[in-house]
Amino acid sequence: MIHPKIDPVAFTIGPLEVRWYGLMYLIGFLAAWILGHIRAKKPGSGWNTQELPDLITFCALGLLLGARLGYVLFYDFATFINHPLEIVKIWKGGMSFHGGLIGVMIAIWYFGLRTKRSFFQVADFVAPLAPIGIFAGRIGNFINGELWGRVTDVPWAMIFADPNAGFVPRHPSQLYQAFLEGLVLFVVLWSFSAKPRPPMAVSGLFALLYGVFRFSVEFFREPDAHLGFVALDWMSMGQVLSLPMIAIGALLLWLAYRKR
After folding, report:
1. Where are the domains of the chain?
2. pLDDT of res. 92
3. Which uninterrupted H or E stretch holds 190?
């Protein structure tokens, strides 16, 4: 199959270009707001819908800043040291999920201080709202024809137009990630959090499952060309960064149910 060459610009308003990738972020934030309303309205949720605009705004800022700075630190530090102004050029691409997660965690901590809630009271509420945004972001990667997979001969392999992809059949790994990290993670977390759970359990399950899904899909995704494999001659940076998530997620689940 040939990757459908989609114009990364969805539409223009005068001189302003609105790109699909940016729209995917907007869809993710809107989905989090809608899902948050649904959860906040449940009897005994401990939340009210008037708190959501601040919560989503703080998390959005944390995500965008953290994702960009995380990419700089984890994936291309040398380039940005030599050309620091490139850091602000988000439209050129370069966002890290793990950096965005750290940014969101800081936002959750700050929101908890403002509302006199513990970190995990907020984190357990936010975790089930995130996967739809992850799904949308991976669809944005697919539209852009970036972060493609490794060379393969599977029937659904796709040829990407990017010359760096070599015009050879590759795994559409963006779609694998959209399915696992987005849809599957959402269904599991939304169902799991529908019933009362001990503190840390929902956050722990999010970290554990995302880490496992990301670690697994990285076997089908082409490592970043300027990094290659960064550990043991077979582990990508995405896998290295996912290992702490798996460990922390398992620990949080153990602590949550041990206390119970």
Report:
1. 9-259
2. 56
3. helix 185-192
CA distances from 148 to 141, 171, 220 (A): 9, 7, 9
Cα 136 to Cα 186: distance, rounded to the nearest angstrom: 12
Distances, alpha carbon 252 to alpha carbons 58, 127, 182, 193, 245, in Å: 24, 14, 21, 15, 10
Query: Which residues pair with residue 17 across a beta bridge?
Result: 12
What would the two tokens of residue 101 be? 């997660």
Say what the alpha-carbon torsion angle 53, 58, 64, 65 is, to the nearest 10 degrees.
Answer: 160
CB 86 within 8 A of CB 79: yes
Mind listing the pLDDT tens digit for each residue in 28-70? Answer: 999 999 999 999 999 888 899 899 999 999 999 999 888 888 8
Q: What is the pLDDT of residues 16-28, one digit of tens each?
A: 888 888 899 999 9
Q: Give 85 or 68, the one with higher predicted confidence.
A: 68
CB neighbour list of residue 128: distance below 8 Å, 6 or more residues apart: 35, 39, 186, 189, 190, 192, 193, 202, 206
The answer to the question of whether 221 is labelled as a binding residue is no
Burial of 133 (0-12, 13-18, 19+ CB in 10 A): buried
DSSP type of residue 219: T
Two tokens, residue 237: 């940076």
Dihedral sign from CA coordinates of 109, 198, 196, 184:
positive
84: its two tokens: 């620091």
